[in-house]
Amino acid sequence: MSAAQDRNGLPVLPVLPEGDSTPPERGDAARNRALLLDAARRLVDERGAEAVTTDDIAAAAGVGKGTLFRRFGSRAGLMIVLLDEDEKALQQAFLFGPPPLGPEAPPLQRLLAYGRERLKFVDSHHALLSDVGRDLQMRFNAPATLHQSHVRLLLESAGTTGDLDAQATALLALLDADYVHHQLHDRGRTLAELGDAWETVARKLCGS
Amino acid sequence: MSAAQDRNGLPVLPVLPEGDSTPPERGDAARNRALLLDAARRLVDERGAEAVTTDDIAAAAGVGKGTLFRRFGSRAGLMIVLLDEDEKALQQAFLFGPPPLGPEAPPLQRLLAYGRERLKFVDSHHALLSDVGRDLQMRFNAPATLHQSHVRLLLESAGTTGDLDAQATALLALLDADYVHHQLHDRGRTLAELGDAWETVARKLCGS
């Protein structure tokens, strides 16, 4: 692979595009968009995505519901933007952030930190990730492939032998939104226990 | 665990019920049911499930289409019965059959054989398993839990340390119907390669 490499010799992954090709929003539109996203994020954190309606979001943002639909098209559209922004923040952290997630830590330590961090993310974003996971186009494309690539690279850098794609897939099954939700809510497991399980499997695959 | 054990000390798993509580079918009805299932199995083997219609099945079985709907309710009903019969046959093989699948082989050998056998099954039953996998009720209940239990028991008998449920989940991700289909049809992998990958992960988890 001849892509740019970070200081640990890991190829640097392509970053998700920062915007799209639509023209820049006017000031009011951009401000309303930010107000709506902030309100939605706060409500989802408080109640879980399932319990948040477009009425709630518009009221909390102090804008009309028509504005929400003009900016995001639908409730689903807003939730996808919200997920995408949070995905980008986590992505920045694991590609460029401080250790143990970022590139200054050794690969196995990064892999263990990634699992525990992603478990928290998956728990707080369950409803939307579960929807997205049922869509096969999404499942085998970005940003799912970005996680696959990241885990694969860390396994490789940690000296893992054998089929790296398969081992990344096996490991990532422990971060599947529905699996995590089922373990936490139906089986009484905790995020710490699921993080320990991630560590067990990651260490065995790396041979450490 | 105090359940009955086989000769290798493995608890014997409960077997799926052989029938349901409906009264026995009359001779004609039972014969038509068998003819329709045989025809459907043959056509699915030849063309894949997606390309088989109820017209095809009824014609190949030499019965009217009305008979098909009386016996199975719908095309989906027939396909579920077909999958269930084939699941039972594979289940018999891995619970009670000859080695390397069955109980006379050592646990790791059984686990490796199970992976390769199940990959073939998943490939030939892709369309229906994929439908069923999207249904969460099915995903976390029998027969999915039966596979989880079987793999967990074999890991345990092979001396695997750490969280057995998580490791069984990670391993079974390599047999997921959509994953296998994607690897075979979009990535150009072969069943033999996917079987080798299963073996790599299984051996690492068992520490062998």
From TrEMBL, chains A, B:
DNA-binding region coordinates: 53-72
Pfam families referenced in this protein's UniProt entry, alphabetically: TetR_N (PF00440)
Region (Disordered): 1-28
Coiled-coil region: none
Keywords, ordered alphabetically: DNA-binding
Gene Ontology molecular function: DNA-binding transcription factor activity; transcription cis-regulatory region binding
Top-rank lineage group of the source organism: Bacteria
Residues of the HTH tetR-type domain: 30-90
Name recorded for this polypeptide: Transcriptional regulator, TetR family
Species per Swiss-Prot/TrEMBL record: Mycolicibacterium vanbaalenii (strain DSM 7251 / JCM 13017 / BCRC 16820 / KCTC 9966 / NRRL B-24157 / PYR-1) (Mycobacterium vanbaalenii)
